[in-house]
Amino acid sequence: MKSSEETTQVCDFARSYIRWRHDTTKKPLLTVSQPPPTTLNNVRMPLECLMTHFRPGGTGVYGLGASCKTEQVFVERDVWMQPNADMCAVSSADEFMVIKRWDKADKGVMLHPPSLGPQPERQCIDPVQAFETHELKLRRRTARRIDDIDGIIAVLSGDREVVARTAYAVPGGEVLLEYPVKTVNFSERHRYYQVDTGPVLYHGEATGPAPIERLHLAYVAHLGGDWAEFLVSKPTRLEGHDVAVHHFGEVRRVTARHSLWVVAD
Predict the structure, then answer these.
(1) Global pTM exceeds 0.85
(2) E-assigned strands of 31-113?
(3) Which is nearest to 192 in space by CA: 152, 249, 230, 157?
(4) How far apart (Å, rounded) are the C-alpha atoms in residues 29 and 204?
(5) Which of 48, 188, 213, 262 satisfies CB 3.0 to 4.6 Å to 208 for a cystine?
(6) What angle do CA 245, 36, 199 make, to 5 degrees?
(7) How many domains does one find in the chain?
(8) Which structural domain range is residue 146 located in?
(9) What is the DSSP string of 130-160?
(10) pLDDT, position 3
C-alpha cells in the first residue's frame, strides 16, 4: 500500500470535550427553562467536529458538541423535560452558543425565570457570565496523511480511525474543518471514496453580531476533489401548513480542499 510520510496532530475526538460548570450559589443560570433540582452541576460534552476560522485580527477555534436531549439531572423520575428539545453546544475559548431544536421552530419555550423571555433556539451567551468555569478541552493524536486512492480504500476497508480536513474560503478569511469520518462510501472497482458524515459546523449567515453566530449545524459530503456540499439545518416550512420545523434541507456548495488522515495506533 502506497502511503504518505506526512504526519500531523489531529483532534482526538474520543477524548476532547466542551466542559462547563454551573454553581447557582455563585452565578444565576441563563440557559434553562426549568428550575434545576441541584445547585452544582458539571457537564462533559464530546466533540463532533472542530472548526478553525482564520480571519483578520486573529484565529478562532470552535468545537461542536454532541447532541443530547433536554433533561433534569439527579432526579428519580421525569428526567426528560416536556416539551423536549434536541440540544447541543458550540464553544470556543471565550464564546458559547446553545442550539436547541424542539418539535417545531419558534416553539416559544420560556427561560427560567420567565422574566428572561422566550428561550432562543440559538442562544449566544458570555461563558464568563453564565458558568463558574468553562473550557474547550482539546486532545491531539498523531495521524498520517493518506493521499492515493489505493491507500485510502485499503484504510477504509479496515477499522482504523480516519479524520478528514476540509478548507474553504469565507468572507474575509478561511475556515478549516476537522471531523471524524463516520459514514463513508468507497469502491475498489470504480476507485472512489465519498465522505457523507456529520454533524459538522458550516460557516454561513450571521444570526447575531458574535463570530460564533455564523456557525450552523450541517452534514458534509465530498469526493476528495475541489468541492464540498453541505446540507445545512434551517427552519423549513411544511408544505400546506403554517408551521416550520428544523430540517437538514438547504444545500450549500463550496470550492474546497480536502485531506484524509489515518490515526496512529
Answers:
(1) yes
(2) 40-55, 58-65, 68-69, 86-91, 96-101
(3) 152
(4) 29
(5) 213
(6) 35
(7) 2
(8) 139-263
(9) H-SEEEEE--EEEEEEE-SHHHHHHHHTTT-
(10) 54
